[in-house]
Amino acid sequence: MTSAVVKAVGVVKDVSPLYYRILSKFPQNLTFCFAYGSAVKPQIGNQKKHNMIDLIYCVENSYRWHGANIEMNPSHYSALRYLGKGFVARFQENWGAKVYFNTLVEMREENVTIKYGVVSQKDLIADLLDWNDLYLAGRLHKPVEIIKQTNSSQLQNALQSNLRSAVHTALLILPETFSEYDFYFAISNLSYAGDFRMTFGENKNKVRNIVQPQLLNFRELYRPILQQFHVYVDFATGDTQCHQDINPETKLHHLMQLPMVPQQRIVKFWNHGGLQQDMEDVLRAVAYDIDCAVILRQILKDIVWQSSVRQSLKGVLTAGFLKSIRYSAKKIAKMF
């Protein structure tokens, strides 16, 4: 893995041995793994030592991985395991945001509780490149703890592409002048604005609480990406204001670089009830429209809303009713 890619996916040099001990309890054929959330990265108002650790396990073959894991850790699964590994794998890949979560898993020997999501590599790459669901792609817009690096050049490139897409999108949403904090807030908010869980069970200041204590981590994550944007933005760190080119032709460039799904939805929105225009014509018209940022924000909100609702409903089945109630209660308790 090149140093540029290592930086782009947010690798932390000294990974806690705890994570490796946790992974040792699972089938080892993972292609990529990262940890995220308040137990992993600092968040204002969430300094509790016993926060649940959130993990994502990326696998090449969901059918084989779940088969092995059901044998090793049957208690992690709800009653869905009785329908077989084939059903579990299909349920993972065909419903919601294509992630299968097992939650409130107690690792007693480590004195921690974890939640882990399983995703196939092909589905992770698709979300990173196209923003089908903006679900795991959104989590990877923010600093995470990479536990197992990927050897797949396709996934490495998709991870970088996802960060570049976040920058193009943030610049379209932000005004001509903004602060470094505004920039990282805009990026972090891409996958929270529209998330129906933000209407209940989540702190309304969650994005601010993520960004403020992690400015240095965000800076490290996006530094190599922003070097590719020097023509479009004069990016400054600290208290100095950043300035970007807001010429419509520059906006058109950013729109042309967006992932496929937001582009398609912009075209659908623009053509609704009117003259049917192709993608380039629509994106050019949007670039010159005073409501360009408003349109883009609404498109992204719709993507996030749909995927968050579907994935949350899916979680009731993968966790089981009792665990779902306990998990929701823990989320609400963290607000107080």
Draw up the topology in text.
Layout (H helix, E strand, L loop, with lengths): L2 H6 L8 H7 L6 E7 L16 E7 L2 H11 L12 H10 L5 E8 L4 E9 H10 L5 H4 L5 E4 L4 H21 L3 E2 L1 H10 L16 H6 L3 H12 L6 E2 L7 E3 L3 H9 L3 H12 L7 H9 L4 H28 L1 H13 L3
Parallel strand pairs: 2-4
Antiparallel strand pairs: 1-2, 1-5, 3-4, 6-8, 7-8
Family: Belongs to the TAM41 family.
Pathway: Phospholipid metabolism; CDP-diacylglycerol biosynthesis; CDP-diacylglycerol from sn-glycerol 3-phosphate: step 3/3; Lipid metabolism
GO cellular component, one term: mitochondrial inner membrane
What's the helical proportion of residues? 40-55%
Please tell me how large the radius of gyration is: 20 Å
Uncertain ranges: 1-12, 332-336
Arithmetic mean pLDDT: 87
Number of helices: 15
Order of helices and strands: HHEEHHEEHHEHEHHHEEHHHHH
> Pairing-aware structural class of the strands and helices?
alpha+beta
Number of separate strands:
8
Q: Major beta sheet, specifics?
A: 5 strands, mixed
State the distance separating the first and last CA atoms: 42 Å
Q: Beta fraction of the residues?
A: 5-15%
Shape, per Cα inertia axes? globular
